Amino acid sequence: MRPEADGSRSEPDGAEPESEELRRALDRERAIARREARQAQRQLAETRAELKATRQQLAGLSRRRSVRLSVAIVDRGRAALKRIERVARRIDPRMALAERSGQRALVASQADQDAFLARLRARPTPAARTSGPQVSIVMLNRDGAEHLRRGLPALAATAYRDIELVVIDNGSQDESVSILDAFKPDFPVRIVPNVENTSFSDGNNQGVAESRGELVLFLNNDVEPIDHDWLGHMVETLLEPGTVAAGARLIYPPRGGAPRAGLRFPDLSLQHGGVEFRMEDGVPFPVVMGAGGDALDDWASAVREVPALSAACLLVRRADLEAVGGFTPGYQYGQEDIDLCLKLRSRGDRFVYDGRAAFWHHESATRELGDRAANRERVRSNRDRFVGTWAPRLYRTVMLDGSRGGLAWRGEPLHVGLDGDRAGSDPGETLDVPAWRVARLDPAEDIDPTIDVFVALDGARDVRRLSPGLVRVAWIRGPVESWLARPWFDDYDIVAIDDATAIEAIDRGSGQRAQLGAGPFAEALTRLLETWLGATRIGIQIAVPSWDVAPSWGDLHVARGLQRALRRLDHPSRIHIRPDATGWPAARDDVTIHLVGLAEAPTRAGRLDVLWQISHPDRASVELYERFDRVFVASDGFARWMQTQVRVPVSPLHQATDPERFRPEPRGPSHELLLVANSRGTRRHILEDLLPTTHRLAVYGRGWTEERLDPSVVAGESIANDELGGYYASAAIVLNDHWTDMQREGFLSNRLYDASAAGGFVISDDIEGLEAEFDGGIVAYRDREELGRLIDHFLGYPEERRALADRARAVVLARHTFDHRARELLDRIEPLLAQRPRMV
């Protein structure tokens, strides 16, 4: 939101003839103009296509009675026409921009500047303060001699006299230091030399430490005061009750022959009128308000509240800075000022843009001229750090603002897309929220990337394939059967239904918690959306590489069971597969529970990251555990050991099952011996202990090649998860074993819990904790001979087999369901959540 604070790198005086310098500048501008022209032409084509689609929608709507929706579409058409005009004007960057305030060219002449200043100074303003609390002006500089020559005299003429200037010079190689040494205003100046360039955060924090004032003004070296009374106005604004920061009106100056950033905006236009937020890929990002607009407009000249401000010119109290720890290290010239603003929100309610304080902003072009690949990586890194820190709180704040029809934080209205249709039911007819933007979606087209809330009216579109940034709403009117049959039904965030009698069917047939969408559609959607936004949202991260293969991964079914349990406790939950792990939407969850698999997901500072290690103890390490805020382990002994190795709290949390999925209903083939397990390139040790056998064995799993197992006993590669319980219930004996590392470290297999919940009788290899976990309801063997004896015995005594299976099932229902685990998780993490703010 603010350019590089070290200033633009200017050429030394006399480095080349003025005409040659001007020619080079013009060549640069021509190249930029050509590039922008190509981009504008593409945008123009897209806009024409949008207008055509809008006209088609109007033609269709003309046959309907929806007056309100028709008016909204007409407004979209008008907006599209205005966009065409804007894009057309940008095709030639030298084209004059017609405005009510007069003709203004992209490059202003001296006469244009004189006229602009005359109009600026003609506006009456109250007299500004000339004294008060001491203000420490902190300025960073690196090779900014040209900026200093221009800006320091204007700074010396400031009418407010209780100031000091602290300049952090980051190893300048030009004339900066000599210019600063020669600067002798009637206020103190301190120069702090650094051998090397520092980050914007570190340099400004250093400047604050070197300063003494009660108030601190961060001022870029490329910001030049236009008049003398600017600081008095800003101090007056900051001292108003509840105000935590004051910012200023920044204006693009006449560029002459020098390059500057923001070339797509005209000279003498507004560069900064405050900062608001715009949704991008499902998370809010800061955008400058009014960039390129009329810098003399009443709105630009006003004193008004804004969500945030640029640190190119930012006045704050020292006490507030110290309370929040100053600028956050780690950013590299990008997002750190907005990060600071959001931190300062804890110290006061009001951020105030003071349009009376006007500056030229000779916005640095250093980044524009540098290594483009390096700049892109820097921008990406800064944005990722910002999202990782602020997404949960900022997303809730900005989306609630939009859902209530406000634009206090957002730059654009909430965008709601209605997808599909139901005969005799048209929510669009009653969706009357003036501040929302509502669109009917074409089933044959991709989703508009600006949509915030996706409302499915028929459930035909696979929501797993949509952008993760969307809030996914299923609005069910009529029979629920077709909805429940969709493989993606559990992946809606909100399920609304008009018929209260059908809520139980949805709860029973899925992992969703349906809510009654009674009343006018707009009111109901607003209520449901605000409930979802206000709740603690919990993500579940799994290592599944894609939704295409997800059903064959055990991690998905563990995640589904946990997701359903969390929803029953009124915590919205979404499952994130591996490709979504680094995406920004995953960062906006309040909590993410990571199920350790073959790939690790990143942790984020702004959310609570919880590790639940249910398998793969070989992947545990001090480095892994200490990335998390809380760790749970599906083994008592391993949890005790790891707690001695790490600082993060580690607790046991065993595997569990979903008794709604695993019921004692024998709906599968009647196998004598059943083993459901993959090979993973080995012949598992329970088969080594069992084979050959005279009993009928059926093995289901992947990787059982002929050299590893007789094909006659391989019954299939997999069993559908919703059928697996029926197979367990139908088998005489369910066999189970553990991988060597899991058996050694005491990680009980999830198969034990699933089979027991389904009423299956299980014989397993011995493992620490097995008897206590199931109260002796699961039988353990220790060697080949004992396994044979146990199988022979229990096949001959079905009543004894049934009694043990019933005991194991009772234990599972009483202690080992996902409902139990979800409650245990929440009991441990809710105290941590209570320490974290929910809103900005």
Plain-language structure description:
The protein is α/β, with parallel strands linked by helices and 840 residues long. 38% of the residues lie in helices and 18% in strands. The protein is built from 27 helices and 32 strands.
Write the layout of secondary structure elements.
Layout: H1 18-61, H2 67-90, E1 97-99, E2 102-104, H3 110-122, E3 135-141, H4 145-156, E4 163-170, H5 176-182, E5 189-194, H6 200-210, E6 215-219, E7 223-225, H7 230-238, E8 243-251, E9 270-272, E10 275-280, E11 283-288, H8 298-301, E12 303-306, E13 313-317, H9 318-324, H10 336-344, E14 350-361, H11 366-369, H12 372-403, E15 415-419, E16 437-441, E17 453-456, E18 471-476, H13 481-484, E19 494-497, H14 503-509, E20 515-516, H15 521-534, E21 538-541, H16 554-568, E22 573-576, H17 584-587, E23 591-595, E24 608-613, H18 622-625, E25 630-633, H19 636-643, E26 650-652, E27 673-676, H20 685-690, E28 697-700, E29 714-716, H21 721-730, E30 733-736, H22 740-745, H23 750-757, E31 762-765, H24 770-774, E32 779-781, H25 784-796, H26 798-815, H27 818-834
Parallel strand pairs: 3-4, 3-6, 4-5, 8-14, 15-16, 15-17, 17-18, 18-19, 19-20, 21-22, 21-23, 23-24, 24-25, 25-26, 27-28, 27-30, 28-29, 30-31, 31-32
Antiparallel strand pairs: 1-2, 6-13, 7-14, 8-9, 8-13, 10-11, 12-14
Helix pairs in contact: 1-2, 4-5, 12-15, 16-27
